[in-house]
Design goal:
330 residues, alpha/beta, Rossmann fold, 2 domains, seven-stranded mixed beta sheet, six-stranded parallel beta sheet, 10 helices
């Protein structure tokens, strides 16, 4: 294996955090039982926060950014893997407490990896990435709460983002009527192309919430949080459910218990970082079955590693649509 590789390294000084491209070697990496030659990564909203330092994602420095990676095993003492095996890693503290995917090589724990699911390529797996895998976990959580295609529409907030785009495609493929909420009206055709049947403006949900409001949907996938999530809950039908997986508007939840005690609404939280391995495998199996690859391609843009600092600022500014694949060799 080539012992040197390029990485995007987050470093901290008295003046703040910097993100700099460095040439590293295998000896610079953290401990782990499996070495992976990384071919692709991706850019999620959380990556934007980590690279720009707008939120304290990195818990130690220096830190290689990137919460996702895909590639091939080079060496491993984990009996589940052999050299050449195609693998994917989402979360498990990458870019927080363990060196992440914005590097040509990663050394990680084998238990964090999942096999690359056919028919996906490494690039397609990263087109899904944590955002798409989180969307699948959210859809599965709604199904667990008996949200079903015949029960009425399902709302997706932050619809033009990564989680929202994949959630729409998944729900549409499963036969749901999808309502998409977005602050980007110019993306209406894009969202309808993914399967949304109705588009509503973000402003309808982002204002001060009522304790309870007119019933509009049986379920929702929310990546926004704050007042938006409170409004979504207030408008959820009796016995419905909302899967919460993001905080683009904020971490607060200025709502009421009324939807829970008057309508029996369920709020289910989605954690993709420490999600147990069996649930991860189920999610990736479902993605291989239920995600339309043509719709995945339609929501995906491809960029090189060197473009990440600019892309990180753009995703936080709401200027990135859908999913971003990072070719680590570029």
């Amino acid at each position: 294996m080539d012992q040197s590789f390029r990485a995007l390294l987050l470093e901290k000084s008295e003046t703040g955090q910097t993100a700099t491209f460095r040439t590293l070697t295998l000896g610079d990496l953290m401990e782990g039982d499996t070495v992976v030659r990384v071919t692709h990564s991706t850019l999620n909203y959380k990556d934007g926060l980590a690279v720009t330092g707008k939120a304290p994602i990195a818990r130690k420095y220096p830190m290689i950014a990137g919460i996702d990676l895909a590639g091939a095993v080079e060496t491993s003492t984990d009996p589940r893997y052999k050299p050449g095996d195609a693998v994917v890693l989402n979360g498990w503290g990458l870019s927080e407490s363990h060196y992440g995917g914005y590097a040509g090589v990663a050394r990680v724990k084998g238990e964090w990896l999942v096999p690359l699911q056919a028919p996906f390529s490494a690039a397609e797996a990263m087109a899904i990435g944590t955002a798409g895998y989180t969307a699948m976990l959210a859809v599965m959580a709604l199904e667990d709460q008996k949200v079903h295609p015949g029960g009425g529409p399902v709302l997706v907030t932050g619809a033009a983002g990564g989680v929202g785009s994949v959630a729409i495609a998944l729900l549409a493929k499963l036969g749901f009527t999808v309502i998409a909420s977005t602050g980007r009206p110019e993306e209406a055709d894009y969202l309808k192309g993914l399967g949304a049947q109705e588009i509503i403006p973000r402003a309808e949900l982002s204002g001060d919430p009522r304790p309870i409001a007119k019933e509009r949907w049986q379920g929702a996938v929310d990546s926004v949080g704050s007042k938006t999530l409170a409004n979504v809950l207030a408008m959820t039908r009796y016995g419905g459910a909302v899967a919460a997986c993001g905080l683009a508007q904020g971490m607060d939840l200025p709502g009421s218990v009324a939807p829970f005690i008057l309508r029996g609404v369920t709020l289910t939280g989605i954690d993709s970082v420490m999600c147990p391995r069996p649930r991860r495998l189920e999610a990736w199996t479902r993605l291989a079955r239920d995600l339309d690859r043509e719709r995945l391609a339609a929501m995906t843009a491809h960029h090189g590693l060197s473009e990440i600092p600019d892309l990180a600022n753009r995703i936080l500014a709401g200027q990135v649509r859908g999913r971003v694949v990072i070719d680590v060799a570029r």
